[in-house]
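quick one, 152 residues, struct below
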Amino acid sequence: MKKITPFLWFDTQAEEAMNFYCSVFKNAKVGEISRGPDGNAFTVNFQLEGQDFIALNAGPMFKFNESISMFVSCEDQAEVDYFWNKLTADGGEESMCGWLKDKYGLSWQIVPKQSGDYIGGPAPVKAQRGMQAMLQKHKLVIADLNKAYDGE
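---
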C-alpha cells in the first residue's frame, strides 16, 4: 500500500461503487474485500490508474461534498467525453468547469491535459479568455477552449 491512500466513506454501496469505478477505468484492479458477519462488504480495496483506494460501508452519517474531488487528466476530447458520460450516467450530476458528481455523490474533475495552458499560459490576456470559457462550461470541450484562448 502507498503511504497516502484516499479513503472513501459510503453508506452501504462501497462494493457497488468499487465495481462501478473499476468498470469505468481501463487500468483498474479489485483488491481485498473484508466482509462483516452478514456477508456484506465492510471495506473494499481497489486501484484506479495506479492509485490505491479504500472504501468503507459505515452508514449514512457522512456524505461526500465538493471539498474533495478526484482529478482526471484526459489526453483528448474522446477521453473527456468517455469519463464525463460514464461518471454522469445513472443519476450523476453535471456541474461547472469540468466538475461532476457521480451517482454516489463523489465529485470528479474531468479535465483535458491542455487546461493548464488555457488558464496559466504565458499570455495573460489569452489565459483570462481561456479561464472565462472554462468557467462557463459544464463538460469541457477542447475546441471551444482553444477558440476562446485564441480570441475567436
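The helical segments are 14-24, 77-88, 115-120, 124-135, 142-150.
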